[in-house]
Amino acid sequence: MAKKDTSVNELIEKLNVEEVKNSTMHRVVLAEQANKRQGTQSVRTRGEARGGGRKPYKQKKTGRARQGSIRAPHYAHGGMAHAVKPRSYEQKVNKKERRLATKAAFATRVQAGDVIVVDSIHMAAPKTKDAAALLKAAGAEAKRLLVILPQYDEATYKSFRNMRNGNDMKIEVRTAPASVKAGADAVKTQAFSTRDLLIAHKIVVSKDALSAIEEVWA
After folding, report:
1. In degrees to the nearest 10, what's the CA dihedral of 103, 104, 110, 116?
2. Which runs of E-coded beta strand occur in 162-207?
3. Quick check: is 213 in a domain?
C-alpha cells in the first residue's frame, strides 16, 4: 500500500532552489509547446496553383479590370496570398534557465501541498485496477495527475495509460531526469517537463524517483 512521505521537503532544501520569476517559467513552457509543433503546413501560392496559363479575357475594351490569371488570390480556387510554408517553430532556452524553471515549478507544487510521495510505483503486469487502487490509497484522486517513475516501465505505464479516458481523468506518466550513469539506456523523451509540473492538479512520485531527481539536480 502506498504511504505518504515528507522526504520531498528535504529534497527541496538540498536543491537550493533560487527565487525564479514567473516570466522565466512562462518562457520555458512556451518553448516546450513551440518545440512540439511540426511546422509542416503548406499552402499553394498563385505560382503553384494549377491552371491560369492564359489571360481570362483581353486587356482592353471590356469595361472590366485587367486580369492576368484566374489563379490570382481573389479568384476561387486561386493561390493564397502570403501562403503558409513549412518552417521551424523551435525556441531555444538556455540549459541553466530550463533547469532552474523546472526546479522552481517542482518547489512551487511542493509548497502548495500537491506532491505526494509513495514508497513504490511498480506494476508486475498492466492492470488498471491496481493503478487505481494505488492512487486511491495515496489520496491522489484528481482530474489531472502526473505520475513520476524512476525509469520507464512498460507495465506500469500501460496500467496508468488505460485510466486516461475513464471518469473524466487525465493521467500523464513521466520519468525522473536521467543521470549521467544511465547513458544510452536513459529514456530522455519521457522525462517530466516544467509544463507537466504546472498543469497537473496532483503529482505522485516514488521514493526512487526522488533519489534520481536529487542525484541529477542536487
Report:
1. -30
2. 170-175, 202-206
3. yes
Confirm if 142 and 202 have CB atoms less than 8 A apart.
yes
Q: Which domain holds residue 55?
A: 42-85
Whole-number Å distance between alpha carbons of 187 and 83? 38
Residue 52: inside a domain, yes or no? yes
Residue 109 and residue 14 in one domain: yes
- Regarding whether 157 and 73 lie in a shared domain, the answer is no
Taking the mean position of all CA atoms in its chain, how far away is CA 195?
6
pLDDT in tens, 97-147: 888 888 888 888 888 888 888 888 888 888 888 888 888 888 887 888 899
Residue 170: left (phi > 0), alpha (psi -120 to 50), or beta?
A: beta
* Contact partners, residue 74, CB within 8 Å, separation at least 6: none
DSSP code of residue 80: P
Q: What is the DSSP letter of 72?
A: S
- Nearby residues of 55 by Cβ (< 8 Å), 6 or more positions away: 67, 68, 69
User: Which residue carries 520531498 as its cell?
Assistant: 8
The SS3 of residue 90 is coil
